What we know:
Oligomer: heterotrimer
Structural class of chain A: mainly alpha
Radius of gyration of chain C: 22 Å
Number of strands of chain A: 0
Order of helices and strands of chain C: HHHHHHHHEHHHHE
Number of helices of chain C: 12
Strand content of chain A: under 5%
Largest interface: B-C, 56 and 68 residues
Order of helices and strands of chain A: HHH
Helix content of chain C: over 70%
Strand content of chain C: under 5%
Helix content of chain A: over 70%
Largest sheet of chain C: 2 strands, antiparallel
Number of strands of chain C: 2
Largest sheet of chain A: none
Radius of gyration of chain A: 16 Å
Number of domains of chain A: 1
Structural class of chain C: mainly alpha
Strand order of the largest sheet of chain C: 1-2
Amino acid sequence: MSLVRDMMTIAAVSAGAFFFLAGTVGLLRFPDTLTRLHALTKADNLGLGLVVLGLLPQAGGLRDGLKLVSIWLLGLLAGATVSQLIARTAHHGSTR
Amino acid sequence: MTEFLTAAVGFILAMLALGLLSILRGPGDADRVMAVQLIGTGGIATLLLLGTVASIPAAIDVALTLALLATFASIAFVKKGLSRFEADGTASMEEK
Amino acid sequence: MSVATAFEIVLAAVVLGLGTWTIVVRETFSATVGFVAYGLLVALIWVRLDAVDVALTEAAIGGGLGGVLLLGAAARLWDADLMAMEAPGEVARASAAALSVLTAAALAGAVLLLPDPAPTLAPAAVANAWATSLSNPVTNVLMAFRAMDTMLEKVVLLLAIIGVWSLAPDSAWGGRPGPRHQADPRGVLAFLARLLPPVGIVVGIYILWTGADHPGGAFQGGAIVASMWLLAIMAGLADTPPVSRRSVRFILAAGPGLFLVVGLAGLLFGAAFLSYPPAQAKPLILGIEVAMTLTIAATLGLLLAGAPERSAEP
């Protein structure tokens, strides 16, 4: 059982780290603000979600697990809202 | 497991640094605000992994606080900072 | 080189690089962003050093509230003429740089030259936890062993807010701080400001409550609640209260006031000023912390809102 848990953690955290990598590559390579924003939010939210998923088997109990999931949900909510606001402002800026 | 998670922490941190490099050099102010978002999400992922590696259960609380405050800071920066093109600074960032 | 050391080197390098960039960059907006990012990363360092209470405060103040405060200050300096006239000269900048380097060197020397093991009162603080029956030694030190310092810090916060209010122009004396924010009530920002503050308030109360036995406490909890209040104000869902309102002033004075009352009670009925009888220590401390959280939330929120700009509506 412990082996399965560890395997799941390694798999999920690796996938999460890969998405962080993908997001960073996107940040470095994409041409303008809006596309970079896309890379940032999509990859980071997925990256955070997979890391949280990977840490759930290692969590110390139900309360810690719930905290982990709520951190991810907060991250999703925040990322969605802030990227909307940034995008709108960047869009205004570029059409000025 | 511990070694792997520590390596994951270092990796995500390096990704954060790279992403920061590109964002902080970014031409517009919107890019700078994205830096706050990036640090927020990446910092949360790093904190959660670090908490598991070093057996610090309270790191999850710090990650929770970070989630809320980074959101607040990003929004404040978008609202106050990016609206300085308007003369009075009270204009909303959202069109009706 | 172990993996842990490599990670620490990466973290230190990122923080140092970010700090240097913050100092060197030209626009104040960019520097403020760098400052916030720096604060968030330093919180990571604190966790690595096993100082989680400090990490909580760093994330709350350095990461969020401090950065937004600087942003407000920078906004008031955007008048280009003002900046040109008051830009510091070469001598001032050189002496500031020299002073900073000296301070950093002194701090580094003090830390690196500490005898091994370093002198510390931590074992004594842990050993005396029976006096309050709280198991977080940081809370014990803040609320019991050095309660006087904590009380005086809250008074300092009060003085700070009075100082900020005194900057109000005559027409707005006693009025509402900051502009009236507008946002589309069906837009994204209003949605977030409706959804997030209840969660944030619960988290803030949780951090306050868990400070008794785990890292946390009144200050961090109050800072979180303050940021949620400011979020609602920024989205136009709430307005800053007029500073002449009595309830506002009562809340601001409640924290240090309760502290003082308990301290005097300790003087009258107990052994000394701010002494707690061990049996009632925990409820007393908890009561003071609740009042302090309210005060800190209100104070930090009003500090960031600024000096009154609009006269209070009737």
